[in-house]
Amino acid sequence: MVPILPHSLRLLLFTFVLLGLPVTPAQAGCTRTPAHWSNKSGVAWPAPYSRTALFFSSGLTWQQVLDTPPHADNAYLILAHHAIAAMLSRASGASAPFGVQAVLDHAGAWFAGGTTPASCGRACPTQRDWAGILDLYNSGNYPGAPPLCSS
To answer: Is the entire prediction scored with pTM above 0.85?
Structure first.
């Protein structure tokens, strides 16, 4: 399945193709899902991330965000779960295609902009799109991304 990319990412990919730049870097490492980072005992998080650090302006720690079920009516938490897993996979050595890295950059800027779980209820279709892209990446199904880790 090919992900439907937001307009800004389609333009970025078109620019890469137009300029003859590589769209997908070489694969390295493997990805892990939000459940792996949240629920597996003894899983150490890569530096500089910490389970006890505050997750941007959410008022919750990174671990508390992962422990909060991402109900369908809260796009903030849905995106946060997938962004956390993708950031931790990247810090653990997983490569990311340019489209995934662009989504991570946009999501990081959005979280850093002062949004909270209450900021984005049923709305925020762009953030839901980003979460879908990161879900594909985390599960090893994004085109050109590394596979899901086997253990």
So the answer is: no
Q: Which residues pair with 115 in a beta bridge?
A: none
- 49 vs 55: CA distance, rounded Å: 10
Judge contact between 31 and 89, C-beta under 8 A. Answer: yes
Q: Convert the pLDDT of each residue in 41-87 to its tens digit.
A: 789 999 999 999 999 999 999 999 999 998 878 999 999 999 999 99
Return the SS3 of 119.
helix
Smallest CA-to-CA distance from 113 within 100, 122, 126 is with: 126
Round to the nearest angstrom and report the end-to-end CA distance of the chain.
24
| Strand partners of residue 61 | 54
